[in-house]
Batch of 2 targets.
Target 1
Amino acid sequence: MENKAITKRDVDFAKWYTNVVMAARLCDYSSVKGCMVIEPNGYAIWEKMQSILDAKFKELGHQNVQMPLLIPENLLQKESDLVEGFAPEVAWVTEGGSKKLEERLAIRPTSETLFSDYYSKKVNSYKDLPMLYNQWCNVFRWEKTTRPFLRSREFLWQEGHTIHATKEEAEKETKQMIDVYRWFHHEILAIPSITGIKTEKEKFAGAEYSLSNEALMYDGIALQSGTSHYFGQKFSKAYNIKFTNNQNKEEYVYQTSWGTTTRMIGGLIMVHSDDYGLVLPPRIAPKQVVIIPIGKEGLADKLSEEINEKLNKGGIASYVDKTDRSPGYKFAEAEVNGIPLRIEVGERDLKENKITFARRDTRERIVESADINITSYVEKLLDTIQDDMYNRAKQRVESQTFTAKNLDEMKKILAKQPGFIHADFCGNPECEDKVKEINGCKSRVILPDEKLITGKCVACGKEAKYHVVWDIQY
Amino acid sequence: MENKAITKRDVDFAKWYTNVVMAARLCDYSSVKGCMVIEPNGYAIWEKMQSILDAKFKELGHQNVQMPLLIPENLLQKESDLVEGFAPEVAWVTEGGSKKLEERLAIRPTSETLFSDYYSKKVNSYKDLPMLYNQWCNVFRWEKTTRPFLRSREFLWQEGHTIHATKEEAEKETKQMIDVYRWFHHEILAIPSITGIKTEKEKFAGAEYSLSNEALMYDGIALQSGTSHYFGQKFSKAYNIKFTNNQNKEEYVYQTSWGTTTRMIGGLIMVHSDDYGLVLPPRIAPKQVVIIPIGKEGLADKLSEEINEKLNKGGIASYVDKTDRSPGYKFAEAEVNGIPLRIEVGERDLKENKITFARRDTRERIVESADINITSYVEKLLDTIQDDMYNRAKQRVESQTFTAKNLDEMKKILAKQPGFIHADFCGNPECEDKVKEINGCKSRVILPDEKLITGKCVACGKEAKYHVVWDIQY
């Protein structure tokens, strides 16, 4: 049914996005400027993201810890690139316990400094390495313009910070973790993405290089969705993180960090949702199946409970909507909240031994015999929904992927619509500045396959060193 | 084996406590004054606490949300009792994005204000009620003297905040949640505790009344371990949280909040640990069983893996210590880390078809046939350890529980050792001040059974209204 609270996606994408966020009650604005309240429906998605990623991190040997929220100014300043990158965005605590502080304390915008300070005290020998730590926490960046989930002053994330005895091991970790984000996007969120290396200009402040996972939204604009940084010895030299290697010589550790945030919830919406509200891929949906009994004879209620029990036993997150409201109201609510599958158990249909399944993604209704093996049927149908959602998103990305040989071609493409634009690049940051003049288009990633380089730099026409994907970004 | 890094508990309890925290690598001091780094062993305990409590909260219908970290000063000031209670402890953000702010922002010391502000916008009708929200987050209080887990400027906690249509329902919720904390302490942490009502002087700033769960540490000092507050309409009037009731009349909601913190980790240590390091009750231990193979023929390794697989399948958190270190080193490490049960699989013993179990709590070693049903044996043994730990703690509390009729008796008891002191009380805060003069002794809780009142007020000798338990506190 048409949802009047939601602007049509093709009419005003930005308005549509905010309408979906509010209609599905994922988050709300707060009285604190630039900060949001994550509501139950939104937080349940974050919890499911956490549980899946956390299990994967642990499987790979990582352990969770918790560093302090605040960073003394002198500690933050030890690594100069990081300070330069984050200084304009820092919130400062200057008063505590009714007194003015002697030294300002920053609310962490990211925790490289705290982890480095900690590691410098803890590591002695190569036998202590690697140390593979992660934390789930809130961070704060003083953003000027904010949008729910996509850009807010405070956001929730995880940040992994690891130290290693060798360059090879640390680089392997950097690569492994971007692959985890890629796996998470493709397999769990049904979001196809591209993975590559950030250019010098776009890399993380303080990193030797940054790997990034980039997704394409419905409107053709890119969303950076998970990054993994290789620091080499930059932080270990600034924070004096030394160890005795297996040759009994003192050496600085090799370091990585990697993170992803609540912003992925925004990505989920902008890839999959529609004019009727939220659409969630089954593997990330906190509630996968809603069962709605229709009829007053008690028959529908009884069968609904039986189906629910079977599905729960089979590991499917289903529930019966037993509230005192009309079936139509229940349908609409499940639809706007993005429950992947609805099962209608109607007493009239039961007389013909039928139940109805309604897919949220296609809104297709399928009538089946009430005698089917419900658990295996639903399992398969949820898998089909997941695969179909991924394939539709993939097709859209393909239709929004372009190639440009020069700035004129790029301009023409972007005048029509944004998208992933493949174009070769010489490596000169001034050429990136020229591209940026076209609607703020930026390099997303360098694709690591050199064979992809077939032409000259898109901006200056000189010898190309990299094959880069470009796009406007969120 | 004697642990030289740990001061004897009966020699210097405070030093012993810090030594155990450090030796078991639960947390460490950070470069940020008054803030700690929670290390992997400590954070794993917190994660297990979270997962058990969170499942219970959800079972009772609560949903998780996330409120902002910062509170604008004017919002904080709307409820005057709360401001007065927390003002001296607030950390203030006064600069952000390189500019001085027009209004100071407090780092949340607790989130009644933010929840109330949110609820005031969200609730309309009695049909929207109850709203049963909880959040897991960090809070900040500018403490002067700090101790790992027990008192730190930043700590992790959960805070539940609920609103209801009736007084009865809200009071039922307040009681229900203190009972959850009590259950958690008794059944999971093996910590006997007393539950009751805080006196007017000791209740939460802004509450109509506070219920508290109080545990007794090894040294006889009390630790407040979980509180549940009934606010009545105090916050709903201050923050204008109104709804239309089922008589179609406007009314203010009835409100509660309840919370417990990482401080419980400190409580666990101070109740159960010993001169050899950490001792954890099996139900809260992240790792319940360590299996240590001894011998180089491969036989011990193979059997250890088999045992581990069986235990894991049975839902027991076991692991094989396969590291390249001596059995003695492995024993000592498992001991200081508080792994409840050690299984020694030695090749010499296997020739006689024997394996050995070593309990961490009693340090008793039990030799058994290698043919026993290992899963059910270990399950039972872990239950026995849990029960024995609870009973020993309970006996100690009983031996540290006293009765006093007047201040002289109280002084005599406290001169010998602290403990739960039962004494009647007239209700006058000045009498509490007099008690406080004795080593800082405070009312812990009023026990709700009036029949317990048998005498006169311990301080003034006048008519008693309450039967109170008193003690020095952490």
Target 2
Amino acid sequence: MTQEPIDQELDNDPQYRAAVIDLLAVLAVSELTAFERMAADSVLAPTFADKASMGELATTEFRHFTALRNRLVELGADPEIAMEPFRQTLEDFHMKTKPTDWLEGLMKAFVGDGIGLDFYREISSYVDPKTRELVCEVCDDLSQAAYVVERIRTAIEEDPKVAGRLALWGRRLVGEALSQAQRVAAERDALAALIIGGVDRPGADLAEIGRMLARLTDSHSRRMADLGLAA
Amino acid sequence: MTQEPIDQELDNDPQYRAAVIDLLAVLAVSELTAFERMAADSVLAPTFADKASMGELATTEFRHFTALRNRLVELGADPEIAMEPFRQTLEDFHMKTKPTDWLEGLMKAFVGDGIGLDFYREISSYVDPKTRELVCEVCDDLSQAAYVVERIRTAIEEDPKVAGRLALWGRRLVGEALSQAQRVAAERDALAALIIGGVDRPGADLAEIGRMLARLTDSHSRRMADLGLAA
């Protein structure tokens, strides 16, 4: 079997290789923990149809996890070792954002996941096409989004008081997501270097990082607006 | 579209139809709640490989749930209404058998699910071939069983004290499963009539019911022995 150019590039640049593995690993842990928590939050669902929809979302996350783990193995990484550094961060995120009811669980699946996936998609523009393709595939599968939007809008129509509480909850989700992302960036040099660049590799300048943050905030506000909520 | 004979039979015998719908519905709720709890129990897993295996088990249960729900719709039943009578029973089972650690979670996936599936398989011998085929398909998919057996045997080898605790846990799982099964049989006349028979339909006599219970107990003991545990 001939090695693909990307695999050669990974061999030739250990820091770049470490960054790609970090990216795939943090995304894999995100998907796996999202799967665990969504399935657990499905217990809060008022109807079997809601449980079924949450279950679809959760099993999709698990499929993504499997694809990411397979890619790690393909690249010669030990998934266990690659994923471990991100376990605590993701567990902390979920512990600090435990939904107290079904609507909060739905919001978390849509808004919390949304900002996370946007962030990974942004980072993917700094990696090789094959890795980018996998990351985008994993990040784009929001087939149940229409269902979540409709359920939350209906709940707000039925009881407008709900809107204030959910708007606060949305802010908390984003705040926790950003604080965990900062923690990852601070601890994982290779991943941070992917964005800000290295000796031989151009990265984003400050202006570009500013624009990236603006795009993330815009997408978040758009999602909140879709739900009929203030960001 | 011509109606299949089985659908005609269901139309002609309302009690039989009710029994088939009950059987598919209780199995659907079992699979759905098993999915929710296994995914939640995956949080207890010590390694990502263990999480991945538990996740495989859980997503298989969800796929079964989807197949059963689709069949309910095909038969003209409203899945929401059909499944509701079994929700509390299954929730109670899971509440009373919450694993306190990873090994108990694994045992529950293997032993608790095992006796449940054996029971559904036994009942399926009283229904039409098409329903039976679906039930058996759903009940037979224990692809991860070898993994569970190996994990538990290793844990016992590493710390023989574990065996006593897990043997007790196995007995508790079976006790709770049987007590919930009795509750379902007591509350759902149609389902009970499927086994003991109705006016125009032969059922099992007492001797056959005794043999069925013996088969269930035997299978359970065999599973416990596979794990290296006393039943």
